Amino acid sequence: MADKVHVVPHFHWDREWYFTAEESKILLVNDMEEVLEMLENNEEYPYFVLDGQTSVLEDYFSVVPENRERVKRLVQQGRLIIGPWYTQTDEMVVGGESIVRNLLYGRKDCEEFGEPMMIGYLPDSFGQSARMPQILNGFNIERSMFWRGTSERMGTDKTEFYWEDDEGSRVMVQLLPLGYAIGKYLPAEKNALAKRMEKYMPVLEKGATTDHILVPNGHDQMPIQKNIYQVMDTMKEIYPDKEFFLSRYENVFDEIEKAEHLDTLKGEFLDGKYMRVHRSIYSSRADLKAANTRIENKITNCLEPLASIAYSLGFSYHHGLMEAIWKELMKNHAHDSIGCCCSDKVHRAIADRYFLAEERTDKLIEFYKRAITDAMSCEIALDKLTVFNLVPYERTGVIRGEIITKMKNFTLEKADGTILAYEVMEKEIVDAGLIDRQIVHYGNYDPFVKYTVELFDTLPSMGYETYLVKEAPVSGSEEVLSENGAEEGTGAAADFCLENPWLSAKIEANGTLTVLDKTNGRVYKNVLLLEDGGDDGDGYDYAAPAEDWILTSENCSAEVTFTSGTYSQKAEIRVAMAVPSCLESRKNHLSDGRVNAVLHVELKKDSRVLEIEAEIDNQADDHRLRLLLPGQAPAEYSLSDNQFGSIRRPMRDSAMDVWEKEKWSERPDSIYPFLSYVTGGGAYGLSVMTDSVREYEFIGDSYDTLAVTLFCSVGVLGKEELTRRPGRPSGIKMETPDSQLRGVQSYRIGVTAEKEALPRLAKEFTTPFITYNKMPYNAMKLNSSGREVPYTCSLLAETEGKAVMSVLKKAEREDALIIRFFNGEESSIPVCVQKDGKNVQLDEVKLDETTSVQAGINGIRELGRNQVVTYKIKNSDKNSR
To answer: pTM surpassing 0.85?
Structure first.
């Protein structure tokens, strides 16, 4: 029996939830003053834990900057415990780089004040990623605390254990078996306190591996409990054989480390047996989650590599702007915010932050593209189209760009004189004042024309190619540039087919596709069938109504507009589905609402991916819409990516047979998250890649259909007694009409028949070629940088063809670049970085960018399954800035 009880004062600070961040900031000012006063005036009150996230301090100092020194003094005394995170991150639907930056910027914030808490403290995240031990070890963190996701079927019934990743990283875990709030508002009255504690003590003692147990004394936005000494005196009366004292989490870990044996667990923790993990929250407010996916990919796949190329050419790497973008995004990564289980007004604030983060990202991308292109010589031609390939290997494919000019005809030429064929897909008149107000100021009102062109070329690894836009003669008086390269038609769906050497996709009368994989002759039917079912759930969970009525687009009639060019084929498929407008209508089989879907499907020359942009106009409530991809090979598991790797999950969770008997907190449906790709575990079947939604399930009697959730439409934050989640409401009962998602939403996914090299293919899908059109005018003026850069550039190359580059960025503190790779394959793979055909001298560092692992690597390195490696490349040969 444990006889030493660590009472740890803390608060859990949800920046926002059903209340706004502005409301919680007002409470924070009050609560922080009480915490500071207690620590400053009571030596016997030794510690207070500030919820492991520095965004709390950021919010506090935004309105009380005069207290920085008070906080600093207490942190340096080891009494006010801060960090290591920036926000209390989710682990299921945010990317690996986001979690790394959360720690990177959180620890950076701590430096002004003192040492951070070296515990991976995530007390309320809805499930734990299998990669977390590796991520934490990357910041020299060897301890972890959390609440949700474990059960004894994972290998232990103890609350202290080791958690190990596939490549050997390991952390010691102190589980919070009853959550972070069992010590909230502890009563001083003996009978009331005894009644409360008698529910907790048996659970805490059963799980303990030492004589020490933990009682966290705090709750959501809870002010400091000033009478905690009186409470502990009463505890001693109730339990005279136990010692109660104020403590901190580190002291508990110090005792656990003395244990002779701890069990070792592996994998992700997504069991909802003892606590809810909300294994369907991944599609709540899908519009906001899709925005997060898109922005994450823009930052890590486009902005940071582009800025690194610019930096290598002598331009400044704007760390301050980057950090501002990341922090705006990471405010939305707190578990409730990214979960989108909030009030409507909070969701509007979340959307505003996504807007700011994306606007900053887009404009900084535009700045770096312009800075590089502006620094090229104008002797051959002033007008240019620069195309950037931001993956670390040569890539051949279709380039789509815009050229704005007054030229009646032009050619696209490389600096060596090679002329590239191109095709005009669209053109539109652009008012000169939108290009540069100074043009019309001096009386020139002649309009410009914006041409959308397509061409096909091979681009250098992690670099760019420049095409000079040169005026060409026009025969006769006619303008040569016209949309005559692409043929367009409108008609019945069955009249059209997209096709290249790898795939064909015949459009059926109902708008679905019949896809032929030309490499093996396998045919997949009913691809992109829409499935609509009821949703009687809430902001946390999907729940089918007791009397569901599931409809599909099988009997719909689609209208198609088809465009076929030299380099791409596009189909606009319009499908109108009549669906129930509400749960009552669904119960009565009445289709009095509608979902209008426009699927923009594109197949490019030599591409193995069908690219799909789904525009959904939702005019119904309380339902779930999914895209179906039938024809999966028999398999016992699915395969998808998670942070820095991949994960297998069962098609059917075996706990489905016992969850009711064992009184699980929620039904363990095999509804799972993915980050960029998902496929079945069998030998064949279509795979899905995403730049938007991140939830899937395999359905059907033999689990032969991959269902990707487009959105769930609900109208309440919390609801009791769901079909999948019995008992109390999660959160609170509050109406959230905006979460019905009425109106138009857009989601981008890709479909491929490929099974091999899916991690790299998904990376390419989310890393498109990006272009910049240099012309003589620009509304935003810049002085010359004084540099001259080449027309073509390749910064570096990964030569072995298997590893996925996670990011390329400038080191936070050194004149060096950071490049990170991971292995998403099922077995070990090689990785090697070269420049101009020669191996690059690399220093391996941890994820924190500062802790050295091995210096002077020159050549091939093996990466184990689900292993991440970070290299530092010193920029000794970079142009002076």
So the answer is: yes
